[in-house]
Amino acid sequence: MDKKAMYKLSYGLFVLTTKLGDKINGCITNTAIQVTTEPNQIAFAVNKLNLTHDMLLESKVFNISIISEEAEFSIFKRFGFQSGRDVDKFADYSAYRLNDSGIPIVTEGTNAYISGNVTNTVDLGTHTLFICAVTDMDILSDASSATYEYYQNNIKPKPEAVGTTPTGQTVWRCKICGYEYVGEELPDDFICPWCKHPASDFEKVVK
After folding, report:
1. pTM for this prediction
2. How far apart are CA 130 and CA 57, in angstroms?
3. 68 near 145, Cβ under 8 Å?
4. Is residue 13's pLDDT more than 60?
5. C-alpha dihedral, 51 to 46 to 90 to 174, nearest 10°
6. Does residue 5 or residue 50 have the better pLDDT?
7. What is the mean pLDDT of residues 11-36?
8. Which of 14, 18, 63, 120 to pair with 110, CA 20 to 30 A apart?
9. Is the omega angle on the peptide bond into residue 104 within 30 degrees of 0, that is, cis?
10. DSSP strands (E only) in the chain
11. pLDDT at 72
12. Which residues, listed in sequence order, are joined to residue 61 by a DSSP beta bridge?
C-alpha cells in the first residue's frame, strides 16, 4: 500500500479563525468542504492539539479565509508553524479585518471568506469534525484558490531552504511542511511541531 496516494486527493488550504472572549486566534486547515446547499452548511476538521480547536469548541463561531495562489509562505509560517498557546499570531499583523462577530478575516493571500456557527461536532480521535451553518461569505479577489499540490510545488520552500544540518547526519523530513528532525531513529509517536502530522509523514534523508 502506497500512502502517498492520499496526496493525490485535491483539496484547498484555509486559515480558520475564531474568537473567545478577547482572544482571537487562527490555524491552517485543509479540510473545509460544502456539505449541503439548502441549508448552506460546511464542514472542516481541526487537530485537537491546536488552540483554535479548543476555542472553537467553546465559542462555536468561526471564519474560513480561503488561501489563493497569490499567498506567500509567510502566511503558513504565521498560522501553521507556531502555536497560539505560545504566541499571539495577530501581533504585528495587519492583513486582516474583523467581521461583525469580531472574528478575523485574513485579507492578504486569500480570495474569499465564509463565516458561520458550529451546529454539530464529531469526535475523530486526533481531530474534531465541525459541521457548521454558513452566516456570511464574500469574494475578496479573482485569484485562483491554492490547492495542496500548488502549495507543495510553488509556495513551500524546497527542503534545502527549510533547514540544514551537518554533513553525514541522518535527517527525518516532514513531507507536509519540511520540518527536519535529526537522529538515527524517529520515535513512532513523534508529532511534527510545525504541522502536527505524525511520524508516518516523515521520510528519511541522509545529507
Report:
1. 0.80
2. 9
3. yes
4. yes
5. 100
6. 50
7. 95
8. 120
9. no
10. 14-20, 23-29, 33-36, 41-47, 61-67, 96-98, 104-106, 110-123, 127-139, 170-174, 180-182, 202-206
11. 94
12. 117
